[in-house]
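Exercise (ungraded).
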Amino acid sequence: MAKPENEITWKDLNVGFVVDEPGNASVYRTGDWRSQRPLYNRERCIRCGTCYIYCPDMAIKILEDGYIEHDLYYCKGCGICVQECPTGAITMVEEEEKDGD
Amino acid sequence: MDKYLDRLGIYAARLVSQKEYFVPGHRACQGCAEALAVRLMSKASRTNTVIACATGCIEIFSSPFPLTSWMVPGIHVAFENTAAVASGIESGLKAIMRKGRIPLKKINVVGIAGDGGTSDIGLQALSGALERGHNMVYVCFDNEAYMNTGIQRSSSTPFGASTTTSPAGKVVPGQTTWKKNMPEIAAAHDIPYVATACPSYPFDLMEKVRKAAEIEGPAYIHILSVCPTGWRLPPELSIHAGRLAVETGVFPLYEVERGRYKLSIDLPELRPVQEYFRIQGRFRHLTEEMVNKIQRRVREEYEKLKKKVMMTREG
């Protein structure tokens, strides 16, 4: 999709409401729904990937060395990774407000 | 040695492919286990898949026009005809393959719907498609009410649950009927594969979807998807709640392969249902008498299931 979502008019839409770009929802930022932010402690992580498999928002990436990284563009702050982590390597902290956000 | 092997199981997630066919940016609520179930399902069905998606939570959050979270082709259909459209896609693909317009290859056709689109509105289309024997997979994501329209009861809502159309009050204690046993209805069609799954057991779920996709003929998978919004529980507990549903016997995981029942997780002893109810707001009003009534029913159903496993065992 070339244009941002709010600039699309009906003239830009395909006939029959066909969406011809797979996975274009990934432009949509769900990270700003968050009221709590996951905080990751690398030292306690055993690199099991449990948080990765349980994340409903695909917001956890497994890095090449096996550690993980939260993608805060998508993380909705549900806290499932915190609950399911076997070693308690992730905790939730209050999201702070940033200027311009 | 066993002790260590048990612990190795925790690393199983590292073996799963990191390729996603359902991308982030979808608009499911925080902690939605249905989004997780869809993600795991699409991971297991992989590429070469066509999705027919009924109206419902999944359709609402995965494809808000003009965006889509799907990396595989899909069609949005009305509530009642998911299975009919999926069977049409399957027949259409077969016809154009026969005519040589596309190369001959295995394409999975997956019909997905919620519990309303399966056990209430889409039941006759589903029954027809199962009976005709189309080579497709039908996946029901059961969150036990019509969640996207505002938590109205469906026939899949369990006994005693409070929803907006079966509110718990002084006279009526929430839902007054028992949950419709959809997997059994599908199994009664004598189809090759029926299974129940829960995203709290992700590897089991993926294995079942894989198996269903590979099996020739119709397959039905019933997935319990915890809905933190509708079940009134904190979003971080949605995986835990699914696990409790299985461990208390409320939602046993089993598969029926060519008429043979098999328990996926055989529990020597069920946990009390109270543990499952305690964390959910929709069961908060239940009296001890009602909990006992449900507990008796859950035990009976589980025993019945175990008997079916015994009776249909091979050899």
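Further reading is listed at the end of the chapter. For now, observe: The first strand of chain A starts at residue 36 and ends at 40. The CA atoms of residues 32 and 100 of chain A lie 12 Å apart.
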